[in-house]
Amino acid sequence: MLLRDKAIVVTGGSGAIGTAFGIVAAREGARVLLVGRDTQRLAEAQEAASAGGGEVATFVADVTSSEQVRAFISAAAEQFGRVDGLFNNAGIEGAIAPFAEYPEEEWDRVVDVNLKGVFLGIRHVLPVMQAQGSGAIVNTGTVGSERGGAGAPAYIASKHGLTGLTRAAAVELAGHGIRVNAVFPGIVESPLLRKILGTLAPDVDIETAVEGIGKMTPLGRCVTPEEIAETVAFLLSDRAVGVTGVCVPVDGGLLAALPMPG
C-alpha cells in the first residue's frame, strides 16, 4: 500500500480532484482529513473515501483564514499523531472577463484562495513536519501555471505564483526533510469543466463540447480526477523521496504540444 499509515490533509477535499484523492489515499492505507467549506459535500466525499474501510475525517474551514488553517492542521496532528502529507488542492477559477473589465474584488478573492491559501497551508504545517523531520507537500497548479490565457488574469497570475511558491518552498525546506512538489492538471473531466464550457459555449451540447476540447490534447481526451489523484499519491509517498521542486503536468500531453493551425 503506497501510503500505508501516512496521515494526509487535503484541502479542496470535496471537489472532484479532492474527492478522487481521498478515495485513492484511503485505498492506499492513508489516514485522511478532508478540508472544505461545504459540510454536505464533505460528508459525501468522506463516505466515498471511507467506503473501503479507510480512516477518513472532515473539517470545515476556509483556506484564506490563517486561524482556520492552523486549526485544521492542529486537528489532524491531534487525531493522527502526525501529519506526513499536505495536499494543497483548494482553488477557484474566478470570473471570466476581459482584463480591462476584471473586478478588483474578484482579483483579491481568487489570489487569496489560490495563492495565499497554499502559503498558509505550508506555513502552518511546517512546525509539525519540522518536529517530525519529514513530510511531503503537493500543490495543485494547472497548465495555466505555465501558459497565458485570455479572460482569467487572476487565475493565471495566481497559478503562475503557485509555481514560484512551490519551488521556493522546496529549496528552503529540503534541509528539514520536507519535499514540496506540484501537479499541473490539464483539461479535467469534471463538473467544473462542464460549468466553464456551459458559460463559454451555451449553445453547444455539453458532451460534444467536452469531447471536442479533449481532442486538443495529444492523448485525444480529457484527463480524469482519478489520474491526477494517482500522481499526487505517488508524490506524497516514500517512492518519491528523491523528488522535490518539480511541477508534474497531468494533462494528456497538452503542454508538450505545439498548437497547430486550424
Explain what this protein looks like in three dimensions.
This protein is α/β, with parallel strands linked by helices and 262 residues long. The protein has two domains: 7-186 and 225-250, NAD(P)-binding Rossmann-like Domain (Rossmann fold, 3-Layer(aba) Sandwich), CATH 3.40.50.720; 189-222, no CATH class. Helix content is 45%, strand content 15%. It has eight helices and seven strands. Strands 3-2-1-4-5-6-7 form a seven-stranded parallel β-sheet, with helices on both faces. α1 (16-27) packs parallel to α2 (39-49), α3 packs parallel to α4 and α6 packs across α7. It is globular and about 50 Å long. The chain starts with 6 loop residues before the first strand and ends in a 12-residue tail after the last strand.
Identify the CATH homologous superfamily of the largest domain.
NAD(P)-binding Rossmann-like Domain
What is the spatial order of strands in the main beta sheet?
3-2-1-4-5-6-7
Q: What's the total number of strands?
A: 7
Tally of helical runs: 8
Order of H and E elements: EHEHEHEHEHEHHHE
Mean pLDDT: 94
Give the biggest sheet. Answer: 7 strands, parallel
> CA-to-CA gap between the ends?
46 Å
CATH architecture of the largest domain: 3-Layer(aba) Sandwich
Task: Give me the Rg, rounded.
Answer: 18 Å
Shape assignment: globular
What share of the residues does DSSP label as strand, in percent? Answer: 5-15%
How does the helix and strand content classify structurally? alpha/beta
Q: What CATH first level of the largest domain would be assigned?
A: Alpha Beta
CATH topology of the largest domain: Rossmann fold
Low-confidence runs of at least 5 consecutive residues: none
